[in-house]
């Protein structure tokens, strides 16, 4: 339904034509008599008595009483304001009420309705119409006219002051300063850092110890703790480049991409479900995640990385594999949370565009571009026009309307493969249809006689009803009664029983909620007669008529005719009345089917196979479906098929099986985008899709960098995504390289040189080391945008290798360590915490990629019964990056440690310290189980004493041996625990408790 | 991204205190704060002074998921009765959820009640008994005709974007009154239609997230808070574990020099340990008198479950939780597209006695004056029958009724009006933003000054709109 992109219609074209006239009139300086200072007294009276009081009472509050807060850019407190109009243009066209926006809005007919707190009485509206018709005389003047600031300054926008902001200036080529420092500077980074420290009179602390450094760099690059073997190897390696080789080993590990890919997924607001209003699965999002991990592992140059996410589908690729990877990359654009149940499709589409403009701005440019949706950006040089230039690119891109689901998904298979699959599936469907048709026909053969005997079944069910009841005994008794009646009357016992059960459920069970058609509603009248002796039927009829009139009791509308006319004399008569009602339905249904038979079968949908609602209510009880009381379970029906029909059915079903087996597997699909219908968007005044500017804004980019990056022209037949990708990755772009270099620094040190990594604008922070940032950005671009090269540059610096020690003198000057006199101690993110727990438990599964769990496409994520209805959804001991990210129902372990809600791009994860985390570590089954497994591994160490086991536990958890005191305390604790352990398994109990303590302590989740 | 609580990894004492807060309760670091903190407001959940004198200290929001029909409960419209079964005499909205048919008068009788003479239908006899404490906002309106968007709008002010919930904003604005409890609790919330988003802090610090107790499909008696109970070992064993762990953590702290994160973590274990006993006590209603239990309908299987949600709401509120939401469910229990005639009486029966009981109970405890009770759904319903069958009504965000009580609003008062058929709000209209502005005002907060800097700009619960509805204020 959202497939067609199209030019946005102008919703108020007539009104707008009016604006134009007014604007032209004003522009031409026509001193219309209406605005002259001499007014007919009659018009003045009208204004003073009818118009001014209403303006003052109902309009001034938002339109001029407080000049600092004028809504819609429209001031109405004096004549000049009325003349100037607002963001939506002129509001009054003198002499022409129907062309005046003011009149339009007080009529409450269009998208804008004023005053918002309630409609003006019709007489007042008429007063305003008359006022405008007679020239809109307005004698009000002010010494200082109140004129509102406009939302959009348009072409007059002055970029000059904004371009002076540091982030929009061209990147410099700074030389690393010369420093003393006693040879502490290993490279350029250190020289920039030391120069600042020296300038402030600070000196760095001692370098980190080898164990500390190994634990730090291992967690940093792989998100896992070093193993005892890795620690021993590093400690034993006396080569001068031992550390360099560790860095190379870690960068080459597939674990690296899993760790750093996850960082990017934070920025990309990656999730496996939509979130927001309709939390539906993204079953193919994982392909984008795996693409990101792969991109980091193969060190895909960052410019390519950016380009493919924006326009991968438009870039040439070598072979199908390359093409599919690039399609997958554009999943970036479509992963955002969408309001999927939005009934206003235009609103939905522009909101999706907004989300895309925002994510591109924040992820690649660290610019909150979204601020300019409603008005020129208040702090940064981004006019609304530029926002809609970018928005036009996204609106010309098709995000919604793939056939398989509402968002676009594209097959990762060549056309022939897709065609083969579809052809095979068509054959399967054809065979299935043959089965369905045959079953329908056979069932109909069985059900037609039942419908004919409807009155008899109704009476039989009522006769058997008293013998029925809850419980085994009553059911047996009822079964006997039913069998006897069936034999006596020549009816099918199973059908009577089904009917009795339906009666029982609706008569004895709770009131029915939801969809109306059901036996309870249709047989309400029957129930009333059946419960009374025939002598009371006159009264029952009156009571039923009263109930029908009150509408408080639900009675199927068609059955209401049953109580018209004289009261029935007997229950038999009621049964015959029902039977004739159903006979009418049968005729109606036959006629309906005949009519459908004349139409093109391909045009028919399941909706067509319905009678009008009131008839349909009855039809469903006798023709099929869940509620049908004349239908048995399919298996029961088939049991009484004639032998030749049963054989034919088996043959038809075998064909379905065969064809299914012969079909190639379903090709994989990826969330992706494609080029849509090309459209330039007009500025949406105050962000509203119902209030559009006259002129479309040509697709384009942020103009603030035009003097540095020449904007590539966008062809008329292209969305402009390819050009956007090129513009973003221009080597001189002042933001792209700086932003990513800063992110990498941030992820290594826990804080960026700019500590607002997704906001380089005026409201963000300034860099602590601007020259270093530019040096890194240049190094990044000059090094072919290699991320791994930048890692090496940073990891091999002395700055990175500093200890985390405290220094009072330094802390007095720079308590936040913004100048890097030591390494920051960091709380691990939740992924390494969970992965480390699994590694220590010995159960970490290092399988890469793929879906961890299957879930149905577009399946809902209602987590009351576990995520996707499953409690074990997160049980797989895979690395955390592969755990599904379910928006609005984040895995509780993740939610506990600041994972965030995954709907929003996250540049800097918080690291809160809250009691709920202590509760999680103390009480969660996840930690408890890992502690038990860790204990078992320790107990399985061959021929080790208690002290050796404790020592081993410390090495695994903290990367260091236990101290004598810790060993002593642990052994004493173990002894205590053995004493109070439940019988049997004392050893395991005691060690589990000790492991639980070791895993709970801060040292496990902090890295120095 | 920079904001008052911005988290940096290696931080000053002051920085640390800003972030090292209390996801669960306002209890984090209380001893630290008392020791030497000059400004208690650095603790995210420390009590904070409002902008001006508040009329209410706390809120209980009883959310009727699905959208109750005002036409069958509160809106007595003679013309709807007169024109029953005729077409609507004016245009339907451009965007509708489903097709609606002819006008459909309520099958239930209305009577005037109390001194205020407010109209209430026979479906809500107990609420009718407290109408003089109720403030009827009859002219509510929003824009979104689908549940998800409308519920998000009701709870977060936005049906477009991920925004902090009302309870999170209030926790941010006022902190918690009780350092042993969260500031914002939501009892048995639904995971549908925005789910966690409806009680999430979004870009506000995580300390302002709502704490969920169970979910809407649970028996309330079985609802708990995540990780609050230890299933594995006895309290004595757990204490021994925490003692050893704390000894190691203190030793680590001593060896590394001042570090507020490590200090905070030590504190957080003690606080968590205490919480384990205190919160479950609060959630046990065994100590409540038989009379109180009856008042909430705990003695009746029909009212028992929502009654318990209401009673828990009172207990949390009484203990100082700023914002308590209790959701009536499971699922969209008020979404009567069909099944109105059997379903609506059932939904009403489930909540009527508990809601009236809550108001009565608050009043008798002297708490109603400082507790604002809010009752309502995400929208109302159409005066026309849905799809022609006179057994249901469609979604209607254009005009509906919400109830308020206590906490500085007029009792026995009726505000605003819908048209003669109850479709559109037309007089003294109250947009959801206006409702939010008014709620914040009652709590002593100026909705235009309660801002938070994120993504480079200041956000508000009321976006760029919202007008305090003076007429509601007592």
Features:
heterodimer; A: 1008 residues; mainly alpha; two-stranded antiparallel ribbon; disordered N terminus; B: 474 residues; alpha/beta; Alkaline Phosphatase, subunit A; 9-stranded mixed beta sheet; 3-stranded antiparallel beta sheet; 31% helix; globular
Tell me what you see in this structure:
The complex is a heterodimer of chains A (1008) and B (474). Chain A has 1008 residues and is mainly α. In chain A, strands 1-4 form a two-stranded antiparallel sheet. In chain A, helix 30 crosses helix 31. Mean pLDDT of chain A is 87; it is low at 1-36. In chain B, a hairpin with a 6-residue loop joins strand 10 and strand 11 (393-396). The interface between A and B is large, with 119 and 122 residues.
SSE layout and pairings?
The complex is a heterodimer of chains A (1008) and B (474).
Chain A: H1 13-27, H2 41-59, H3 79-84, H4 101-106, H5 122-133, H6 160-163, H7 188-199, H8 210-222, H9 228-236, H10 242-252, H11 254-267, H12 285-297, H13 302-311, H14 319-329, H15 331-334, H16 345-365, H17 384-395, E1 397-398, E2 409-411, H18 415-452, H19 454-464, H20 472-489, H21 493-508, H22 519-522, H23 524-530, H24 537-550, H25 571-597, H26 613-623, H27 634-639, H28 643-662, E3 669-671, E4 674-675, E5 681-684, E6 692-697, H29 721-728, H30 736-749, H31 770-782, H32 787-795, H33 808-813, E7 826-827, H34 830-841, H35 892-896, H36 915-923, H37 925-939, H38 946-958, H39 964-980, H40 986-1000, H41 1002-1005, E8 1006-1007
Antiparallel strand pairs in A: 1-4, 2-3, 5-6, 7-8
Chain B: H1 13-19, H2 30-36, E1 58-64, H3 78-82, E2 100-103, E3 110-113, E4 118-121, H4 125-128, E5 134-141, H5 147-156, H6 166-174, E6 184-187, E7 211-213, H7 235-256, H8 260-283, H9 290-295, H10 304-318, E8 323-328, H11 340-364, E9 371-376, E10 380-386, E11 393-396, E12 400-406, E13 413-415, E14 417-418, E15 425-427, E16 430-431, H12 432-442, E17 452-454, E18 457-459
Parallel strand pairs in B: 1-8, 1-9, 5-13, 5-16, 6-7, 6-8
Antiparallel strand pairs in B: 2-10, 3-4, 5-12, 9-12, 10-11, 14-15, 17-18
Helix pairs in contact in B: 7-8, 10-11
């Amino acid at each position: 339904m959202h497939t067609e992109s199209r030019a946005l219609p102008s919703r108020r074209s007539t009104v707008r034509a009016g604006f134009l006239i007014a604007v032209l009139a004003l522009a031409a300086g026509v001193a219309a008599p209406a605005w002259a200072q001499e007014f007919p007294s009659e018009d003045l009276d009208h204004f003073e008595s009818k118009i001014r009081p209403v303006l003052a009472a109902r309009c001034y509050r938002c339109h001029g009483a407080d000049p600092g807060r004028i809504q819609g850019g429209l001031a109405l407190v004096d004549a000049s304001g009325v003349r100037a109009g607002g963001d939506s243009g002129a509001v009054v066209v003198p002499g022409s009420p129907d062309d005046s926006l003011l009149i339009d809005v007080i009529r409450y007919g269009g998208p804008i309705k004023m005053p918002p707190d309630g409609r003006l009485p019709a007489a007042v509206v008429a007063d305003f119409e008359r006022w405008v018709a007679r020239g809109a005389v307005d004698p009000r003047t002010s010494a200082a006219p109140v004129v509102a600031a406009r939302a959009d300054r348009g072409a007059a926008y002055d970029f000059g002051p904004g371009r002076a902001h540091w982030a929009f200036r061209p990147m410099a080529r700074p030389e690393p300063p010369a420093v003393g420092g006693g040879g502490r500077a290993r490279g350029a980074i250190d020289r920039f850092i030391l120069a600042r420290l020296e300038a402030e009179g600070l000196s760095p602390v001692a370098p980190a110890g080898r164990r500390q450094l190994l634990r730090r760099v291992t967690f940093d690059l792989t998100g896992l703790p070093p193993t005892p073997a890795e620690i021993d190897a590093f400690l034993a390696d006396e080569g001068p480049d031992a550390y360099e080789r560790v860095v190379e080993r870690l960068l080459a590990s597939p674990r690296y991409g899993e760790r750093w890919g996850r960082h990017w997924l934070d920025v990309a607001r990656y999730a496996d479900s939509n979130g927001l209003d309709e939390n539906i699965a993204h079953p193919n999002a994982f392909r984008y995640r795996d693409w990101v991990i792969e991109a980091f592992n193969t060190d895909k140059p960052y410019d390519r990385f950016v380009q493919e996410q924006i326009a991968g589908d438009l870039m040439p690729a070598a072979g199908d594999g390359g093409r599919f990877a690039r399609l997958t990359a554009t999943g970036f654009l479509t992963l955002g949370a969408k309001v999927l149940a939005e009934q206003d499709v235009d609103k939905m589409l522009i909101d999706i565009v907004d989300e895309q403009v925002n994510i591109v701005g924040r992820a690649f440019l660290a610019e909150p571009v979204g601020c300019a949706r409603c008005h020129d950006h208040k702090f940064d040089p981004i006019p609304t026009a530029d926002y809609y230039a970018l928005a036009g690119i996204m609106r010309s891109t098709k995000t919604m309307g793939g056939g398989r689901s509402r968002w676009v998904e594209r097959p990762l298979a060549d056309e022939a493969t897709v065609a083969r699959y579809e052809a095979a599936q068509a054959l399967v469907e054809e065979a299935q249809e043959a089965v369905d048709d045959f079953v329908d026909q056979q069932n109909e053969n069985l059900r037609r006689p039942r419908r004919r005997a409807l009155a008899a079944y109704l009476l039989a069910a009522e006769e058997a009803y008293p013998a029925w009841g809850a419980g085994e005994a009553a059911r047996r008794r009822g079964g006997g009664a039913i069998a006897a009646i069936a034999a006596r009357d020549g009816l099918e016992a199973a059908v009577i029983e089904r009917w009795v059960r339906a009666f029982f459920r609706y008569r004895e069970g709770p009131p029915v909620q939801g969809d109306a058609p059901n036996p309870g509603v249709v047989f309400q009248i029957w129930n009333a007669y059946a419960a009374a002796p025939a002598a009371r039927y006159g009264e029952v009829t009156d009571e039923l008529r009263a109930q029908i009139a009150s509408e408080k009791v639900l009675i199927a509308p068609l059955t209401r005719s049953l109580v018209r006319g004289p009261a029935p004399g007997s229950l038999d008569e009621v049964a015959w009345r029902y039977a004739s009602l159903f006979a009418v339905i049968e005729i109606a249904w036959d006629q309906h089917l005949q009519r459908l038979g004349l139409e093109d079968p391909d045009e028919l949908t399941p909706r067509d196979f319905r009678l009008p609602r009131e008839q349909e209510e009855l039809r469903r009880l006798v023709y099929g479906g869940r509620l049908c009381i004349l239908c048995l379970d399919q298996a029961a029906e088939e049991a009484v098929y004639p032998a030749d029909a049963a054989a034919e059915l088996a043959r038809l079903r075998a064909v379905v099986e065969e064809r299914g087996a012969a079909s190639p597997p379903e090709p994989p699909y990826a969330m992706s985008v494609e080029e849509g219908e090309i459209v330039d968007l007009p500025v949406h005044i105050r962000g509203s899709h119902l209030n559009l500017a006259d002129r479309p804004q040509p697709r384009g980019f942020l103009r603030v960098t035009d003097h540095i990056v020449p904007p590539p022209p966008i062809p008329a037949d292209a969305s402009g995504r390819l050009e956007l990708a090129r513009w973003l990755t221009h080597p001189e772009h002042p933001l792209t390289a700086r932003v990513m270099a800063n992110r990498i620094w941030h992820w290594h040190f826990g804080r960026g040189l700019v500590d607002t990594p997704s906001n380089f604008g005026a409201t963000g922070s300034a860099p602590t080391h601007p020259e270093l940032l530019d040096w890194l950005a240049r190094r990044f671009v000059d090094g072919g945008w290699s991320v791994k090269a930048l890692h090496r540059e940073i990891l091999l610096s002395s700055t990175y290798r500093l200890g985390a020690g405290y220094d009072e003198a330094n802390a007095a000057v720079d308590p936040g360590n913004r100048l890097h006199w030591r390494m920051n101690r960091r709380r691990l993110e939740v992924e390494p915490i969970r992965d480390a727990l699994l590694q220590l438990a010995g159960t970490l599964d290092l399988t890469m990629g793929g879906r961890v769990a299957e879930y149905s496409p577009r399946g809902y994520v209602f987590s009351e019964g576990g995520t996707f209805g499953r409690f074990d959804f997160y049980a797989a001991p895979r690395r955390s990056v592969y755990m599904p990210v379910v928006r609005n129902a984040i895995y509780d372990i993740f939610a506990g440690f600041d994972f965030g809600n995954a709907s929003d791009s996250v540049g800097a994860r918080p690291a809160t310290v809250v009691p709920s985390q202590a509760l999680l570590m103390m009480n969660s089954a996840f930690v408890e189980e890992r502690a038990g497994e860790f204990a078992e591994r320790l107990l399985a160490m061959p021929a080790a004493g208690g002290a050796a086991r404790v020592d081993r536990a410390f090495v695994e958890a903290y990367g260091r041996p236990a101290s004598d005191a810790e060993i002593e305390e642990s052994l004493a604790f173990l002894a205590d625990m053995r004493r109070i352990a439940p019988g049997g398994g004392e050893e395991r109990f005691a060690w589990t408790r000790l492991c639980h303590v070791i895993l709970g302590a801060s040292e496990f989740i902090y890295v120095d | 991204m920079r904001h008052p609580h911005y988290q940096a990894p290696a931080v000053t004492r002051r920085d640390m205190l800003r972030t090292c807060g209390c996801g669960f309760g306002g209890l984090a670091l209380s001893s630290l704060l008392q020791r030497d903190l000059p400004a208690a407001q650095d603790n995210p959940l420390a009590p904070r002074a409002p902008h001006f004198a508040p009329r209410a200290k706390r809120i209980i929001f009883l959310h009727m998921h699905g959208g109750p029909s005002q036409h069958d409960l509160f809106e007595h419209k003679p013309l709807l009765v007169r024109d029953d079964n005729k077409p609507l005499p004016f245009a339907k909205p451009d965007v509708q959820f489903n097709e609606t048919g002819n006008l459909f008068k309520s099958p239930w009788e209305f009577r005037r009640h109390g001194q205020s003479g407010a109209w209430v239908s026979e479906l809500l006899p107990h609420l009718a008994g407290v109408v003089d404490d109720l403030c009827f906002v009859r002219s509510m309106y929003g824009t979104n005709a689908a549940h998800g968007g409308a519920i998000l709008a009701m709870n977060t002010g936005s049906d477009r974007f991920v925004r902090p919930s009302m309870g999170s904003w209030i926790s941010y604005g006022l902190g918690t009154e009780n350092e042993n409890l969260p500031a914002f609790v939501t009892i048995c919330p639904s995971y549908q239609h925005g789910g966690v988003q409806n009680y999430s802090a979004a870009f506000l610090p995580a300390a302002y997230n709502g704490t969920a107790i169970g979910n809407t499909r649970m028996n309330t008696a079985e609802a708990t808070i995540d990780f609050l109970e230890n299933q594995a070992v006895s309290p004595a064993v757990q204490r021994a574990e925490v003692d050893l762990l704390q000894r190691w953590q203190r030793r680590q702290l001593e060896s590394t020099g001042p570090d507020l994160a490590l200090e905070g973590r030590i504190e957080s274990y003690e606080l968590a340990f205490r919480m384990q006993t205190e919160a479950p006590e609060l959630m046990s209603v065994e100590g409540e008198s038989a009379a109180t239990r009856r008042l909430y309908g705990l003695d009746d299987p029909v009212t028992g479950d929502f009654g318990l949600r209401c009673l828990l709401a009172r207990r949390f509120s009484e203990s100082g939780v700023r914002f308590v939401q209790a959701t009536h469910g499971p699922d969209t229990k008020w979404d009567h597209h069909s099944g109105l005639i059997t379903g609506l009486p059932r939904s009403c029966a489930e909540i009527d006695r508990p809601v009236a009981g809550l108001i009565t109970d608050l009043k008798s405890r002297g708490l109603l004056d400082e507790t604002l009770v809010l009752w309502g759904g995400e929208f109302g319903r159409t005066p026309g029958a849905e799809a022609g069958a006179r057994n249901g009504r469609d979604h209607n965000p254009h005009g509906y009724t919400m109830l308020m009580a206590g906490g500085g609003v007029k009792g026995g008062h009726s505000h605003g009006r819908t048209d003669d058929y109850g479709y559109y709000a037309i007089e003294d209209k109250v947009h959801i933003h206006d409702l939010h502005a008014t709620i914040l005002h009652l709590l002593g907060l100026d909705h235009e000054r309660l801002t938070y800097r994120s993504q480079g700009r200041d956000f508000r619960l009321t976006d760029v709109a919202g007008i305090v509805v003076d007429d509601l204020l007592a």
